[in-house]
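Predict fold of Threonine dehydratase; 366 aa.
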Amino acid sequence: MDSDVTSAAAVTASDVLAAQARLRRYLGPTPLHYAERSGCWLKLENLQRTGSYKVRGAMNALLAARERGDLRPTIAASAGNHAQGLAWAAYRLGMQAITVMPKSAPATKIAGVSHWGATVRLHGDSYDEAKAFAAELAAQHGYRLLSAFDDPDVIAGQGTVGLEIASALSPDVVIVPIGGGGLASGVALALKAQGVRVIGAQVEGVDAMARALRGDDRIIEPVATLADGVKVKIPGALTRRVLAELLDDVVIVREAELRETLVRLALEEHLIAEGAGALALAAGKRVAARRKCAVVSGGNLDASVLAGLLQDVRPRPPRKPRQRRQERLTPPAASTPPRAAGPLPSIAIPVPRAARTTPAHETSYA
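Predicted 3D structure, encoded as tokens:
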């Protein structure tokens, strides 16, 4: 693992429950929304503090470290959302945080980290290059290195998403985006004991975890993708062990599907999601279940990117809803003889005297 936690560390469902107790004071539950056109519930982590679920793991990690007496400055590498979550958590707790972000990180995420007072270092062109530089700085200065996903406290914090879904919805299936695997691991720990299937979602060409779970350990450079939040070259070691045991399946989504789903969320559901945030719903179209829920993991999307997508992507019209079967009229009772066919009888309707004496052009409406 790339954090200060030893490789022998484990994380359990009890850790997720402990994280829920810690976070209750700082983070409220996020809402659920039913996307009727997609037939899928959405867990709106794009409405979380700092615009992403990542703040859960960062806050739980800092609180757990403080309980252990570890008050060192914390450094983390992030494509943006983990850095924002760490910055906000450190601000709330009065602790020092340093974040290393790739130069390609979205401007809105860099601005969000700076807003909460964390030190920002831009290094490299990918998350993995930023992670290596963060490890060097941690070794030089004695900082605590906090992984964005491969840390027991982070995984436990992310798992509180699953606890909230279970308490409000009782789903059959939950679909979760996967980069390094922290969110999927936490949600699986929270839900598997309740009989809920957990399915991961990755982008074609950015599927390091899916390949690792199949036993393919090759290190392949991820392709360019709108889902920068899940663009990870090497998945976590701890998350890989958890998901190998608990994850039911992984769905691979094409980039065009991802882009169309993001635009649909904006136009049909009036929700702003980043690329990784739309990933689970895109995968959910291939998942059959009576009650399924997709995690919209974040909403930190540059306005220029959204404007370009709205201009360039023309989503296909959704399928028309199926017609409900009309109830048949109850046949008449056998004892009631049918009315004979023929002209209807005339009925005399009495007209009040005032109506007969008042000319039409003088009708009063008082």
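The CA atoms of residues 148 and 231 lie 12 Å apart.
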